[in-house]
Amino acid sequence: MKDGFRQSMAWLHTWSGLLVGWVLFMVFAAGTASYFKDEITFWMKPELHAISHGSVAQAVAAENATAYLNRNAGNAARWFITLPTAREPAVGVLSIKPPPPAGSPPVERRRGFDRATLDPATGQAITAPRETRGGEFFYRLHFDLHYMPALWARWIVGFCAMFMLVAIVSGIVTHKRIFKDFFTFRPKKGQRSWLDAHNVTAVLALPYHAMITYTGLVTLMFMYMPWGPQVAYKAHGGNDTFFAEAFPGGVRTQIKPSGTKAGLAPLAPMVAQATAHWDGAPVGRIVVHQPNDANAVVSLARAEGRHLSYEQPTMQFNGSTGALIGTFGDVPKAAAETRGVLYGLHIGRFADPLLRALFFVSGLAGCLMVATGLLLWAVKERQKYAKTLKQGGRIGFGLRLVDGLNLGAIAGLPVAMAAFFWANRLLPVDVAGRNEAEIRWFFIVWGATAVLGLLRPTLRMWQAQLALGALLFALLPVLNAFTGPAPLTVSLRSGPSSVAGFDLVAIALGLGLAGATWLVERKRRKALAAPKKAVKPPPPTELAASAAAGQGS
User: Fold this and answer.
1) pLDDT 10s digits, 346-369
2) How confident is the model at residue 545 (pLDDT cuts 50, 70, 90)?
3) If you write DSSP's letter for every residue of 231-267 in order, what string do you get?
4) Based on C-alpha coordinates, what's the Rg of the chain?
5) 443-455: b or e for each residue (b if 16 or more CB lie within 10 Å)?
6) From CA 22, how far away is CA 32, in angstroms rounded?
7) Nearest Cα to Cα of residue 161 among 343, 11, 23
8) 408 Cβ contact partners less than 8 Å away, ≥ 6 residues apart
9) How far is CA 543 from CA 162, 533, 538, 553, in A?
């Protein structure tokens, strides 16, 4: 503390950002993509591009879905119906098979499910939409990682998010001229330029960075700090009782069938009643417990998009008569609503297209903030080796390792993300385990770029990987035009706006990576053109001394 509180925060800011910076870059990149996960998933299913839910009413789409499920899963234990939206024009249905009789073999006791995608206007299943995780992969990647237990992954991401929060707070303390730095950028100044770039990207979206980091921790607060509910509800049923009181979302116990067949009441009146109750807000999801049974219960959840809170109210109806059973979550408790709003702010599903685009741009600023911070450390550290390099020496292992990790994370991750989209279109549609094959290609490409970066952390390698990422992203619209079910017919007409939006963003990202490639090339040429300093000869006294020593020997 001899240098003062503000100066002491500089060390904390540097190391809290560097130690977890590579994981944070991936979390920021995947989380930013998740703002448009529905659009990404839609783009990765070209079989759906010709579908538009248009003016199909929700009640009609719900009845068509019910008719399909009655024909194909009439004896299921539960139905799930996801109604169409402007971002997802198809109807998603899922049915859970009933439990097998007691005494069945273990293989038969496993309960399976069937999933289908329907045209909302006709209720007919869409022919074989390709199997893909789509945007859900990036959403899960940014907090569940992959190829490891989700519990471990969430602890790792939470640890990194806490470091990020420390870096943000210490960065605010460290920057004495935080608002002036926002308007300051001095190009071609070496370390000063990297620091200016880091400051601008950090201050540009500072409220967003603080919000997204803190709310990310709040989303998993019950995992990170579970002790309060455990102690308070220890004698009252434990966590289950706590969650039932804090988030009253309706029926939480298993509904058992009565054994008496009874037709399911029409869903259209239920949808209309729920929409009127929620002041015109549409229904997002319908769950039918024990369909075609006298004990059937229909649960309707409000669609996301009109309210900040992640927690959505539900209404439940008697499946046989259509009578209202009750409403749940209309007036949430203050603590639950606070947590729901913070959760909703993090995932941004309430945002309209313009606000979602602003979130996306802020997320990209976060990626640049982390990237420039990592590169700034390497630039500052390399200055310590300037004299050694001039004399033909080598940089230390730590700096070389950071250079390689920077290359693999910052330049390699965009290449892997683009490769994920290319794999979606180039892999055979009917290949077994197709969704996992796409993910494998993502990690294969990312692993290859990381290994190459560690082996040769040079400007040439930076240039090659950035150029490859630029090429793969810029050509995605061309790939989309020639790999759909009707290659040019669907692509050249107006079509769904989400497909065109995806292609435009891909082109913009390609241009951004191309610009970065050009900057690296300019820096490389400047380094080659720099005059080499001649080695200064030793003083004459030293020459005379060495000559005398030679004569004496």
Assistant:
1) 999 888 889 999 999 999 999 999
2) very low
3) HHTTTTTTHHHHHHHHS--S--SPPPP-S-B-PPPPH
4) 29
5) eebbebbbebbbe
6) 15
7) 23
8) 22, 446, 449, 450, 451, 452, 453, 454
9) 60, 21, 7, 16
